[in-house]
Specification:
This protein has 307 residues and is mostly helical. It has 18 helices and no strands. Helix 2 crosses helix 3, helix 6 runs parallel beside helix 9 and helix 14 packs antiparallel against helix 15.
């Protein structure tokens, strides 16, 4: 229990360690790779266990902002990336990866980051959980309509895999909530969060399986995809801030945070084995800016909220 509390308190360091462990120890990443999907199920399930349903419903008062944020998160961003990358001459695999990643839901830890940076965590919670539930239905049609046969990706297979993962996480959360009282869950919040961090460590190691191999065999591709991951994250945060600026400074910054930091783990866990190598690689390397950028951008977030 003490170790779980420590993991909870040093979550960022623990998760970042997983990235570097996976890259430096490819054998460990290969060993952890088969448990990627179950790990994602457990992470999502624990997040749902910690959720207060009544509070989430109460946060729906800004329903038009929530609706627009979800449409932008799951559809609009992908269309924008499709348009922006059209004249760039990118390979089919890399362009597909960027478009599909731009259609993914936000990472669950966006809620924690919003609390840490004193942003609109209430709005972030609604958008994160709403997008996570909806994304298995939207990512397939969006990918097919935008990329078509050029995607070289059985995106409907990916859609059903993601739906199975989300459904399993919901089932896990329902079972836990039936067996444990709300009071007990709240009293063990730090331990539950610590367990989630340990699972995120395992997740971070497992997603680096393919990336570790490419780092050693094709450094140019590795650096290209890593750069694209940082560019996508920052670009989506900036554009989202501009679009939602009329809704309020805090709202714009909070939605920018969710839009830039995508849940590539959910998408990666649902990825078919036949997917182009760039797709799996960018889903893995997109975790690097997720762990690095928030702390670097923290002063900027606070300044934008005050402007």
């Amino acid at each position: 229990m003490i170790l779980l509390r420590i993991a909870s308190r040093y979550a960022t360091i623990v998760m970042a360690a997983g990235i570097f462990l996976g890259l430096l120890l490819p054998e460990l990443a290969a060993f952890a790779a088969p448990i990627l999907a179950p790990t994602v199920v457990a992470i999502l399930g624990l997040a749902l266990v910690r959720l207060h349903g009544a509070e989430l419903v109460a946060r729906l008062s800004r329903r038009w902002v929530v609706a627009l944020a979800l449409v932008w998160q799951l559809v609009g961003s992908a269309v924008l990336i499709w348009l922006v990358t059209m004249p760039m001459g990118l390979s089919g695999g890399l362009r597909t990866a960027l478009v599909v990643l731009a259609a993914a839901s936000p990472i669950m830890s966006s809620i924690t980051l919003a609390l840490l940076f004193r942003l609109d965590a209430a709005l972030v919670s609604v958008v994160v959980f709403g997008a996570t539930l909806i994304v298995p239905v939207t990512i397939g049609p969006v990918g097919v309509l935008l990329m078509g046969e050029a995607a070289q990706l059985n995106i409907f297979e990916m859609m059903w895999r993601m739906a199975a993962i989300v459904a399993s996480a919901i089932g896990f959360a329902v079972i836990v909530r039936l067996l444990a009282s709300r009071a007990w869950i709240d009293s063990k919040a730090e331990e539950i969060d610590g367990l989630a961090v340990v699972l995120l460590l395992i997740f971070a190691v497992s997603i680096m399986d393919q990336a570790a191999v490419i780092l050693r065999t094709d450094l140019e591709l590795f650096l290209t995809v890593l750069g694209a991951s940082f560019a996508l994250n920052l670009f989506l945060q900036a554009v989202t801030w501009l679009l939602f600026r009329p809704a309020g400074r805090g709202t714009a910054v909070a939605l920018g945070l969710t839009n830039g930091n995508r849940n590539a783990g959910l998408a990666l866990a649902g990825l078919p084995a036949t997917a182009p190598v760039e797709v799996g690689l960018i889903f893995a390397l997109s975790q690097v800016p997720i762990y690095v950028l928030p702390l670097m951008l923290r002063p900027i977030y606070r300044r934008l909220v005050k402007i």
